Amino acid sequence: MTEPQFLIPLWADLTAVGLGGVQGALFASGFQGQRRLDLLGVAIIGVVMGLGGGMIRDLLLSTTPVALQSDGYLITVTAAALIGMLLANVFQRLNAVIVGLDAVAIGMFGALGTTKALALGLPPIPSIFVGACAAVGGGLLRDVFMGLPVAMMHVGSLYAVAAAVGCAVLAVLDTLGVSAVPAAITCIAVTAVIRVLAVVFDISLPEQRALYRRKVAVETSTIPIIKP
Fold it and tell me: Which residues contact 228 (CB under 8 A, 6 or more apart)?
């Protein structure tokens, strides 16, 4: 990819932003008790999650955030957050739909981030890093704004791993000469499939404590036991 040939389709970017806005609003609407948010708070979390990934992507690439160059981004993400608020009770009953939307949104942000990085001349590995940061950036900022532990840093359902694998597939396809659109579609599909399977089958990376216990067991097994 070369910079003159690269242009993120506006509809694709706005779709990713809209999905992120809905996801953020649904997440924020679910809190009860002292953590419950008012309408403005829910809307802010939706906007942060919808725009966060793209903002982080553009900051890493030292480019002007595209969300600030058009009215469409803020209008789309605000409308999406409002839809997420109004239909929260409906969406909460459709858990499978929410998981699917989340997986597709992660894939789209990762694909757009990796594609833009490659187009601007970054090597494959840094481009994968940019794409993965774009994919998880909205969720990361959401947790920071909410004062919660950052989800991707704890045992979970391969949130960041799914994004990284999808972005890596895109980078490999680009190296092989595959054009941007089919490579991006493949990235989204791979990311979504890994994420959905991880949620359905509760797959996650091993816990650090489990690895440590295993290491201790291996080391202590080599210590000779002297019987009286």
Answer: none
The span from the CA of 68 to the CA of 41, in Å, is 21
C-alpha span between 173 and 152 (Å, rounded): 26
Report the Cα 141 to chain-centroid distance in Å.
11
Please write the tens of the pLDDT for every residue from 23-67: 899 888 888 777 788 889 999 999 999 999 999 999 999 999 999
Give the H/E segment covering residue 172. Answer: helix 159-175
Rounded Cα distance, 98 and 57, in Å: 24
Kindly report, residue by residue over 71-102, the tens digit of the pLDDT.
999 999 999 999 988 888 877 777 777 788 88
- Please report, for residues 13, 53, 77, 191, the alpha-carbon distance to residue 67 in angstroms, rounded to integers and kept in the order given: 9, 11, 10, 24
The tokens describing 138, both together, are 């909205």
Lowest mean pLDDT among 100-114, 170-184, 204-218: 204-218
| Cβ–Cβ < 8 Å for 107, 167 | no
The number of beta carbons lying within 10 Å of the beta carbon of residue 178 is 14
Enter the pTM of the model. Answer: 0.84
Structure tokens at 82: 């409002």
| Rounded (10°) angle between helices 124-146 and 95-119 | 140
